[in-house]
Design a protein that fits this description.
Radius of gyration: 19 Å
Distance between the termini: 38 Å
Largest sheet: none
Number of helices: 12
Number of domains: 2
Strand content: under 5%
Structural class: mainly alpha
Length: 231
């Protein structure tokens, strides 16, 4: 596949994320502006942090002058899920060469979903460039949306109440989409069940990481059984 066709394929694949990221990025830019941070802060955050929901949390961390330790623990709790689903990409990213550092940095929930559900995934040398392009397009949508929101926040008065809920809405949308397109609902049910159990036992401030660990263990059990059968 030539580069032009590969770029077209990656762009078309990323369009659903564009629809979400531009709007969510605008929300983040507006929220940052309303808290007194200019476009440089907003755009720089989306370029260098690029952490979605954690960026919305970062706004509160900045405005409350939170300590580095508090910020580190909060980041681990909010983005700890990346440690678990990122493991499944080790094999795919193994031979990505020069693209690997950026692919690791840019692996968001939505990019992961696009790459894992692609039924027409390119092979050979095209695989690395394709993953890079999908990741780059998604990143550019987020940064572009942030820039638009930051500029709008400077010239228009917005009531930012409720904007930080937009990332939760996106996660719900992704969950529903995967539920509708997948015939196997066990991973979704395990995720919801384990999260609710940990939430009830540990409370809203401490349930996230234990829930991720429990989900990983439960999802790995069928795989271990299959390995034993093959042996």
């Amino acid at each position: 596949m030539n580069k032009k066709d590969l770029i077209k394929k990656a762009f078309i694949k990323s369009l659903p994320v564009m629809a979400a990221y531009v709007v969510l990025g605008m929300g983040f830019g507006i929220l940052m502006s309303n808290k007194g941070y200019g476009p440089v802060w907003s755009i720089g955050s989306s370029l260098l942090i690029y952490a979605g929901s954690m960026q919305f949390v970062t706004v509160d961390l900045l405005t409350t002058a939170a300590s580095l330790l508090s910020a580190a623990l909060m980041t681990l709790m909010v983005n700890g899920r990346h440690l678990f689903y990122g493991i499944s990409m080790i094999g795919r990213y193994k031979n990505m060469g020069k693209y690997k550092p950026y692919l690791i940095f840019g692996l968001t929930d939505e990019t992961y979903s696009l790459l894992c559900t692609d039924s027409d995934y390119p092979s050979g040398k095209d695989a690395g460039l394709y993953c890079f392009l999908v990741t780059l397009f998604d990143h550019s949508y987020w940064v572009g949306g942030t820039a638009i929101g930051a500029l709008l926040g400077m010239v228009l008065n917005f009531n930012s109440e409720g904007i930080d809920f937009s990332m939760t809405a996106l996660f719900v949308t992704v969950f529903v989409e995967q539920w509708l397109t997948s015939k196997d609902h066990r991973p979704a049910l395990i995720g919801v069940g384990a999260s609710l159990l940990c939430l009830l036992l540990l409370g809203s401030s401490s349930f996230l990481i234990p829930a991720m660990i429990l989900i990983t263990v439960l999802l790995s059990l069928p795989y271990r059984k299959e390995v034993k059968k093959d042996e």
